Amino acid sequence: MSEDPRYPTPLRTISADLAAERSSTPFTPLHITHFLDGSPTATSQRRRLESWIIRDPTGIFSNENNAYMHRTERHTRALAKFVRLIELCRSAGIGSKQTTSDGQSSIQHLEGEIVSSPEFYTLVSSLADDPLPPSLHWVMFVPNILTLCDAEQQAEWLPLCRDWKMIGCYAQTELGHGSNIRALETTATFLKESEGAKKGGEWMINSPTLTSWKFWPGTLGKTANHAMVIARLIDGSGVDRGIHNFLVPLRSVEDHSLLPGVETGDIGPKIGYNNMDNGYAKFEGVRIPRRNMAMRFATVNEEGVYEKVAGGADEAASKVAYITMMQVRAYIIHSSSEALAMACTIAIRYSAVRRQGYNADSPDKSEFQVLDYRQQQYRLLPLLAASYAIFFTGKHVLARLKHIENQLVSGASTITKVVVADIHATTSALKSYATTLTADGIEDCRKACGGHGFLVCSGLVELSNTYLQSCTVEGDNQMLPQQVINVLLKLVEKVQSGDDDALKDYEQTDMEYLIEPLIKLVENAADNGTPTKSLFCFSSPGQFADTSMLLQAFQYRTACLLLDVAMQLQNSMETCTPQQAWNDCLLAMSRAARAHACFLLLRDFANGLKDEQQKGSASCLGKEETAVLSQCLCLLALYWLDQHLSDFLQIQCLSATLIPHMRSALLEAMTSLRPSAVGLCDARDFSDFRLKSALGRYDGDVYPAIIKAAKNDPLNQQSSNGGVGLGYDESLKNLIAGGVGEYKGVSGTMSRL
Amino acid sequence: MSEDPRYPTPLRTISADLAAERSSTPFTPLHITHFLDGSPTATSQRRRLESWIIRDPTGIFSNENNAYMHRTERHTRALAKFVRLIELCRSAGIGSKQTTSDGQSSIQHLEGEIVSSPEFYTLVSSLADDPLPPSLHWVMFVPNILTLCDAEQQAEWLPLCRDWKMIGCYAQTELGHGSNIRALETTATFLKESEGAKKGGEWMINSPTLTSWKFWPGTLGKTANHAMVIARLIDGSGVDRGIHNFLVPLRSVEDHSLLPGVETGDIGPKIGYNNMDNGYAKFEGVRIPRRNMAMRFATVNEEGVYEKVAGGADEAASKVAYITMMQVRAYIIHSSSEALAMACTIAIRYSAVRRQGYNADSPDKSEFQVLDYRQQQYRLLPLLAASYAIFFTGKHVLARLKHIENQLVSGASTITKVVVADIHATTSALKSYATTLTADGIEDCRKACGGHGFLVCSGLVELSNTYLQSCTVEGDNQMLPQQVINVLLKLVEKVQSGDDDALKDYEQTDMEYLIEPLIKLVENAADNGTPTKSLFCFSSPGQFADTSMLLQAFQYRTACLLLDVAMQLQNSMETCTPQQAWNDCLLAMSRAARAHACFLLLRDFANGLKDEQQKGSASCLGKEETAVLSQCLCLLALYWLDQHLSDFLQIQCLSATLIPHMRSALLEAMTSLRPSAVGLCDARDFSDFRLKSALGRYDGDVYPAIIKAAKNDPLNQQSSNGGVGLGYDESLKNLIAGGVGEYKGVSGTMSRL
Description:
The structure is a homodimer. Chain A is an alpha+beta fold. The first copy, chain A, folds into 2 domains: 141-310, Beta Barrel (Butyryl-CoA Dehydrogenase, subunit A, domain 2); 317-533 and 542-682, Butyryl-CoA Dehydrogenase, subunit A, domain 3. Helix content of chain A is 52%, strand content 8%. In chain A, helix 8 runs antiparallel to helix 11 (460-467), helix 12 crosses helix 14 (512-524) and helix 15 runs antiparallel to helix 16.
């Protein structure tokens, strides 16, 4: 491995602690690596691709000095990295065409060659492991053209996107308006030729107030020359038709200078993700052609007449557009697994190497491995398990979205409104819960590294700061639970009204698990304000080691909490406004939405493992690997049971006397997983190049790495004679020499000021 | 207020939202300000002092560009700020001499004039609101000389400290050793004259391994010319006498160059606190005089003979030394209140101004104030209440430490071992809980500001990153619970053994509240592994609004959880090693220690308010102010009851059926406090200069402030023609022009790499 370019700092001898961990790992990490990648071939392709980037003779992809650079340098270097990446890809002529299983491009793949790029781009840029400013071009801008623009528009714009003549961003959020899209203020007003517009009519884009300035869009500040601007459409008769999308040129394609009436800039330093030029934009009477409005689902003609595009195919298409947007959330969920696993890898390897506290039992009086402390295990092992759970769920949700999309394209009628609502609730619940868990988890991994976790060279600081945005983008995690509950409450209504036909629509959805419990609970409902009681109850200590029992508890937990929300809302409607009733229920909604997310994560994990077991030898996973992943599943369920214990006690699904047994089972689950901890990290196959961490190195040789990073700091590099620091000559010298006034005792008082 | 220099950006008209909040505030914020400062005079002194710093004609104290500076610039400018501060203080001849109530300097105030400086320094530097590199000189180095060095040593070194000839730091932590001080590896080996040492003997300081390099000490990297080094003392006979303190010169007082055998440097960028030159140091055969060992409690003579200093007075003195160290923790607790209150001020003012979501009930269809959402209230109001609770507790703990110190100095016998252990448990529990709560709370305030909370100009990013270290310094928050429980378990033992005499020692301690419940619980203890049941139980909904009932619940919670720990330990000793038994109990210990901290915080809050009420008109607080602070207390108790509900359900102090009533009481408590939220922030009297926040401005005019901050970013400032970004010429230009290779379709495959 010492010649593997993915390990840039020459690996030294593997630390004795890590060597011991690895030799006692009860499974083969590489089998899990293959499973995560999809196949052994995919693993070696990924490794080759990463090596190829690292070996690039320009050396530009090195991340060694990230920690010491000012954000201006990071941004400009990231631009250079990006252009070099394009150059590399073009010279190698690589890419991969994505087609559906029947060999046809799917509806969104009108330009398959271009659409393939985002996926390839995502892979390549994730391997380069440094955010690249034009990211939003592929992630938001091109998908928007593909879903909302008509065929003619796509034919004109997509080749320009592919050739980077057009570098785009997606400009929705405004300075004063985030989650509530209906409140956006930017206007696009139609002007007919008779009103002085160019032939065919024009739109005039305006930012009427300071709060309407676009603010936050990635790539907008300095990089993009076009923006897909979300604005209120004012038609030829002056009627406000609500928000629509408009392709607005921002900068000259010739010299990148701002076009008349456009002002953009970077929004300034953020907690993380500072390579990116998130931007602001102000529009003052900017004129664009009529056909720069995205016209797939609505049109405006030369006379300024607004019309919705009708027809069955387009209804499906509008669902597809919706599904496409949800895929962004699904990608966020899926990528959370990787971010959390990186943090766990760093913290767990370090905890295996770091020693603290005397071991009175040991013959050589050595200190304990930090990983052997129960608190450290309680902090790290469930997070490690969660990183796998999120992988399974992310994979499942992406597959389901793809399936729904394909069904819609093929015109199958199975995709009902309930199915679309269901996947909306699922992605909302999982996005909110998985990203909160991941953001908090990364930070906890950082804290679990003690003092050294504060060092930027730990790799955890930038990992955390870059990830944090995921809690807020694509639906703030605090807002999403309402959307989840909104959908789930409709199921409760159907159950309450005994509408069995309607319930059939809920079969095969992610809400299916709630039907049976809800029917039983509604039958028994007291509706006197006391919490709904679970119909499943732990009755013996042994049940805590049984995953199917644990899943039943989580199933009833969602059902009970959800029914309580429904009843609370129904009851308070009688005494206050719907708005007030809803507001007073928000905290209960969060709990119920969290319960839904937990159940889905555990269920997908369990089902995913079952699928692999059924594949037999066709699975990348052998018996030992499914066994260790099953231990992860069990530990995670027990951990959540303990963490959210009040939910389970409230629904009386376990009694107080069983709590110590549940906690013993948790300790046992940690003991079982302990020997596999390092192996489960190794299985993710994050190279040292990607981890960028002195603490998480594969070889465990952390201390020389920390000192090396320290010595590279400009404060040390730029010292003058004999290590004297910057600022000594200007400041300290005079003070020490006694030249900065004289100490006059303590007779003075505040009144002298 | 518009001419107040503490509000550097000219205040615009107060936003209508904040004006409305202020006009409906049901109490006088300024009264609380006076109370927090100590008196109306103290308030005006503080304001004058702050204005004086801000108005300094050099303008060096401006923090306007902090966000855009590289850490090297921040460090060197902070050095310059520090020297200017000294110059200002000297020229004004200000300071304040601290004496005890009887007019005598206390034992630690051997050099009252110097000791007074840290407190003044703390105040001044907190008002300058930018960490200053030599901070550790006053915070750790000088106190160490005062507590551990003998009179002769103090007489020699303290004047040098005062005159900044000697700039010191405290070098304890090593690269491989943090919390476990016994494992430190640095050695100080005694050399007699006969062994080639200078007259009187010398110490040779060595870093025998890489893991023994000093690492982390603040001020060590570049600023300090002396360090108090903690090292293993090897006496003249070669016997290891454990860790002792040694004053080691690091740099020449003439030209600041490193002395022979010493290597120091900065440890590199950290998550925050980057003005500071936290440092590393390696010692290679560094010789220092024999008398550079701190000799108050132990001596080594010229022959290398080690001797402990004995005697009653010195036993008290050693307790004083211990108390002094605990005062550092108490300061950390106390300063947490301010940090958390700053974050709350920013988030709450912004939440009052930020609007989101349509209000169907409102006539003008305006959006809601974000602060009216229940989730936002649940996030922010308890934190606001906690910031006040921590203030009361911090004040109480500091006063108690001072009282104990004074008693020790005056030779009173009331300061028993139990008292010292008690204050140790209290500071450990509170430091761990209050700093965790504050760190998480600041981050939650940041997230509660949605997207704009990610901006560095929110003020929350640096506030959070600077604060985070508090969770790890002076005892890692994960380690401290063991120390708490260690002390508390001794009380349980006394109760279990029925030793009534011994229990008398626990009266008047912070553990007193546990005696009675423990006696009753031990009498009833089942000891069959089921959780201990509380003897207090909520029986009616009305009790949740009664603070004394809530306090009883918290009282029994600690007692039950503590007794469970004791019994679990006792039971598992039978089947496993003490080490294993202890390890398996760590999670339960955390819960019990948290319970202890919560009770103390609530009790001190309640007692503090009672004291003010008893003072009558002598108190700064009027009826309205104590009323609103009582609402804070009640809300906080209910919030913790909800947050830690599983503890209370486990001890059966409330039944599941009462949960909805508890939550209704919580909603009502939030409703009651809602009109006071902005007023309680204003009462902290943080100027705009100190908050450094576009979102938390006093005038609420946030959006222009955000744009102004954005435009100041170097990425915008350094743009070339027409706002074209840096990096365009080098990178994008060629790409857009088509000069970076050609798109060759998707025929390529991975195999081309």
